[in-house]
Specification:
This protein has 13 helices and 13 strands. By secondary structure, it is of the alpha/beta class. A hairpin with an 8-residue loop joins strand 12 and strand 13. Bound molecules: pyridoxal-5'-phosphate.
Length: 395
């Protein structure tokens, strides 16, 4: 392909129901087109202050050190781990899916001594296993994923948080697919370091990683003997820009901060409780519809993650052909299985703006159509009536 063959950018419409990104609120897209300000312009500094207030609201924390890292969720993960781990520190990572594995890899790379609890994908981490592993390892930091996007499991945190703090360790939580869709409750759960991403339940484009550090975590960072392994993600340097001093560190992605401001404004307008209830209800309606078609969710009801549902691929169905039909005929994206679950499940996201009744109706109708193309036996219309039943029962 030569440069002259390339025209201006043209992109088709999509309804995003995969593991992220989710569809973006129209006013968030508009915010991206707002004229730029300089990164030290007083008006932009005000945007930064408001974003921090909004982030404390969704994280449900009073932590002063709360800001959006410039980078995607993985940059948040790296910032979380690198700032509290020094070379030689013992770290315990709980792995029940793809993102636990990624945390473990980052621990190795920053020089931490990796200890892992590994359980089958699709199950939760047992607090007793964490207690036993902490006795053995005396780990300084315990990393765990609250919302495993690869499996659709929502990890309960109460008991684990108590155990981690009894042992004097720090609790580090991945809330990439929970923030804005499921209560994260940083202060209530006494989470020491918690990070997220903008493109899942916040319904913003990918590009920022909200993060928050408890006062205890900040003390740990301040007492480091070695410098943080990453210059870009060094919290001390970042706070000299995001805090009172306003010293240039790197140029904040101005437009992304506008978009995040708008997305968080919308969540605050809706209210956290209403937002969580919407995510829960729409998932119940999705599952009712899928079950009416004869499909089975992977995860036990009590551990289902409202923002992401994994559903087993029925025998005899070509899973890639279904996804391709959804994409090309209905402009809908859903996700395939990852890692241990490759070829076994679809991953269906109902996150933020994608978690709406109209969006779900379109999605269920399209899945029904795609399965009929595969000669899968189902009665047309039953999924939608099962879905409607959930909304009617709630009234
Ligand atoms: C998406 C995701 C990440 C990584 O975020 P990126 O924005 O892709 O870098 C990390 N953890 C979880 C649980 C995720 O779902």
């Amino acid at each position: 392909m030569a440069v002259d063959d390339i025209g201006p950018l043209r992109i088709s419409d999509r309804y995003l129901h995969g593991p992220g990104p989710s569809s973006v609120y129209p006013s968030v897209l508009e915010a991206l087109g707002t004229p730029l300000l300089g990164h030290l312009d007083p008006e932009f500094l005000n945007v930064m202050e408001e974003v921090k207030v909004f982030l404390r609201y969704v994280f449900e924390t009073e932590n002063e050190f709360t800001l959006p890292i410039s980078g995607t969720g993985s940059a948040g993960m790296e910032a979380a781990l690198f700032n509290v781990i020094e070379p030689g520190d013992n770290v315990l990572i709980c792995t029940n899916g793809y993102f636990g594995t990624r945390m473990a890899e980052m621990v190795r790379r920053c020089g931490g001594v990796l200890n892992e609890i590994t359980v089958p994908w699709g199950t939760i981490i047992d607090p007793d296993d964490v207690a036993a592993a902490l006795q053995d390892t005396r780990a300084k930091v315990v990393g765990i994923v609250q919302a495993e996007t690869s499996t659709g499991v929502l990890q309960p945190l109460d008991d684990i948080s108590r155990i981690v703090h009894e042992q004097g360790a720090l609790l580090l939580v991945d809330a990439v697919t929970s923030l804005g869709g499921v209560p994260v409750e940083v202060d209530k759960h006494q989470i020491d370091v918690c990070y997220s991403g903008t493109q899942k339940c916040l319904s913003c484009p990918p590009g920022l990683a909200p993060i928050t550090f408890s006062p205890t975590a900040m003390d740990t960072v301040k007492q480091r003997k070695s410098v943080v392994q990453s210059w870009y993600l060094d919290l001390g340097l970042l706070m000299s820009y995001w805090g009172q001093e306003r010293v240039y560190h790197h140029t904040a992605p101005i437009s992304m901060n506008y978009a995040l401001h708008e997305a968080l404004y919308l969540i605050a307008q809706e209210g956290l409780e209403a937002c969580y209830a919407r995510h829960r209800q729409n998932q119940q309606a999705l599952i009712a519809g899928l079950e009416a078609m004869g499909l089975a969710p992977l995860v036990a009801p009590e551990y289902r993650l409202p923002s992401l549902t994994t559903v087993r691929i029925p025998e005899g169905v070509d899973e890639a052909a279904v996804r391709s039909h959804l994409l090309h005929r209905h402009k809908i994206e859903i996700g395939s299985g990852l890692g241990e679950l490759k070829g076994q499940v679809w991953r269906i996201g109902l996150m933020g703006y994608s978690s709406r009744r109209e969006a779900l109706e379109r999605l269920l109708g399209a899945i029904e159509d795609a399965l009929c193309q595969q000669a899968f036996p189902l009665k047309r219309g039953e999924a939608l009536s099962a879905m409607s039943g959930v909304y009617a029962a709630a009234r």
